[in-house]
Amino acid sequence: MLGARSPPSPSAAAPVVVARGLDAGYPPENVVWRDAEFTIERGEFVAVIGPNGAGKTTAFRLLLGLLPPLRGSLRVFDAPPERGSPKIGYVPQRHAIDFETHVRCFELVRLGHSGHRWGFPRSGRVEREAAWSALDAVGARSLADRPLSALSGGELQRIFLAEALVGTPELLLLDEPLSNLDLRRSRELVGVIHGVVRSHRITALLVAHDINPLIPYLDKVIYVANGKVASGAPGEVLTSERLSRLYGLPVEVLRDSRGHLVIVGGEEHTEGELGGGEDHHEGEASGGYGHSAGVP
Predict the structure, then answer these.
(1) Residue 181 to residues 30, 90, 172, 177, 274, Cα–Cα distance (Å)
(2) Is pLDDT at 293 greater than 50 in this prediction?
(3) Residue 166, C-beta contacts closer than 8 angstroms, at least 6 positions apart
(4) For a tag on the chain, would you pick the N or C end, based on fewer CB atoms within 10 A?
(5) SS3 content of the chain, % helix, strand, coil (to 5)
(6) Nearest-angstrom CA–CA distance, 45 and 204
(7) 267: Cβ–Cβ under 8 A, 6 or more apart, which residues?
């Protein structure tokens, strides 16, 4: 079990994220998408998808308080987004880690609890227990003594997820955690994330390149394309009619012989690829925000 949480706030029953008439972009005139309307409830597992450069990582920058809205309203935990919020755990696309230092997995996760980015302060009992709990939550206790340099891609993602969880966040932002994994490992990691979301009632937003491993687990989809945002249950958003309206041209949503979703039209998609990679204007959403919650 993850470390002890603070008592729930009076707004615990309120939606975690509410966007109304939201325009996103980079001042003064670079608007990435306009007039977004979406609500994310506590405990939901949400995929953020769309073609490259559409503004998926821009959405994370807004939620992390790294980018102000151009117009409209965005509330996170019933307040304007707060940079360095301890309620948010963030796993970026790339990590500023020197893998040649042979940092042990346990140390990386433990430091996520203490908030230290540099050095190795003496560990207290609370930090150690929190690190073990986070490793247990993602099924990675056996990796604790291994150096990061010795891990596979799937193992690394579990450790990065544990690092984000160790501060007991209420909202997880995961930017392309499946991008370098094969289908089997992608499904395994999605199952781990879904288990954490359900067992700890954490809300999770995950930017994905391939929607297929996610579909059985998702509560909601936020689809960003053509300067617009569509949101809702997967069965509501991933339809030919809805995506045709979003793209402003004919789009077909099909399933192949294996039951995988295939989108034809709109963009040059391949099987299951509804977007991915970095959004070109901003790169990663880190922008000075640390690997785990509470790091300014």
Answers:
(1) 33, 19, 20, 8, 16
(2) no
(3) 2, 3, 109, 110, 112, 113, 130, 131, 133, 134, 292
(4) N
(5) 30, 25, 45
(6) 5
(7) 51, 225, 247, 275
DSSP SS3 for 287: coil
Q: Where are the beta strands (DSSP E) in the chain?
A: 17-26, 30-40, 45-49, 71-76, 88-91, 171-175, 203-207, 220-225, 228-232, 252-255, 261-264
pLDDT tens for 229-248 read 999 999 999 999 999 999 99
Report residue 254: phi and psi, to 5°: -125, 165
- How many residues can be counted in the chain? 296
Q: What is the C-alpha to C-alpha distance for residues 120 and 294, in angstroms, rounded to an integer?
A: 17
pLDDT at 289 over 50: no
The identity of residue 276, as a single letter, is G
Residue spans per domain, the chain:
28-94+170-264
Superfamily of structural domain 28-94+170-264: P-loop containing nucleotide triphosphate hydrolases (3.40.50.300)
Give 149's DSSP letter. G
The pTM of the full predicted model, rounded to 2 decimals, is 0.84
Q: What is the DSSP string of 161-199?
A: HHHHHTT--SEEEEESTTTT--HHHHHHHHHHHHHHHHH
